[in-house]
Amino acid sequence: DQQVKQNSPSLSVQEGRISILNCDYTNSMFDYFLWYKKYPAEGPTFLISISSIKDKNEDGRFTVFLNKSAKHLSLHIVPSQPGDSAVYFCAAIRNDYKLSFGAGTTVTVRA
Amino acid sequence: DAMVIQNPRYQVTQFGKPVTLSCSQTLNHNVMYWYQQKSSQAPKLLFHYYDKDFNNEADTPDNFQSRRPNTSFCFLDIRSPGLGDAAMYLCATSREGQGFGQPQHFGDGTRLSIL
């Protein structure tokens, strides 16, 4: 049963514009949410996280927003750069340390 | 640089022929994980070691086993690979006991093909 869902398999955005990636989850027991970035032929790398007690976390061009009542989080990338072209995975942790992943969104930043 | 290394990057084996994938880490993390990822799907946790304690996911086939001889190394053994086992296998590590939300660090994966 997929507890973390990324319903958009792909996103294309112009360089310099905002990329918004969405993620929905079903388990209200998740404590932490993370975003990972993956380039082809490489493993996922940690990008940014947010605790369930917060609604926003910002790190440079990357901001994650959490809406607990809607069980929804989003990742904003502003401004988008060509190097941001990758697959982005949303993931969540319950009160243990195991990650539940979404299926990923492929972002393509157009010059 | 501290990292997670998986060998080999690409592995081809025959249907039913046992295969072992390896993972090593220099991060000195106490938890090591193995994931299976098929095309356009979410990485699926197969099992993990918390220190020396092995934790199997309920839906991991019996065909898949793991060994962790020491902190740095972890192996994934597939006893009799079937065509459905062709996938990317990802190893990850994390340091637990430091509070929630510790990110996992991934290797670059081993792409397994079954002939």
Structure in words:
- The complex is a heterodimer of chains A (111) and B (115).
- Chain A is mostly beta strands and 111 residues long.
- Chain A has strands at 4-5, 10-14, 19-25, 32-38, 45-51, 56-59, 62-67, 72-77, 86-93, 99-101, 105-110.
- Chain A is globular, with a radius of gyration of 13 Å.
- The mean pLDDT of chain A is 94.
- Chain B is mainly beta.
- Helix content of chain B is 0%, strand content 50%.
- Chain B is built from no helices and eleven strands.
- The chains are: A mainly beta (111), B mainly beta (115).
- At the A-B interface, strand 4, strand 5 and strand 10 of A face strand 5, strand 9 and strand 10 of B.
Short description:
The complex is a heterodimer of chains A (111) and B (115). Chain A is mainly beta and 111 residues long.
Q: Treating each run of at least 4 consecutive H or I residues as one helix, how many helices of chain A?
A: 0
How much helix is in the residues of chain A? under 10%
How far do the termini of chain B sit from each other? Answer: 36 Å
Shape of chain B: globular
Task: Report mean pLDDT of chain B, rounded to a whole number.
Answer: 92
**Quaternary structure classification:** heterodimer
Largest sheet of chain A: 6 strands, mixed
Structural class of chain A: mainly beta
User: Rg of chain A to the nearest angstrom?
Assistant: 13 Å
- The average pLDDT score of chain A comes to 94
**N-to-C order of helices and strands of chain B:** EEEEEEEEEEE
Helix fraction of chain B, binned, reads: under 10%
Helix count of chain B equals: 0
Tell me what portion of residues of chain A adopts beta-strand conformation. Answer: over 45%
Strand-pairing-aware structural class of chain B: mainly beta
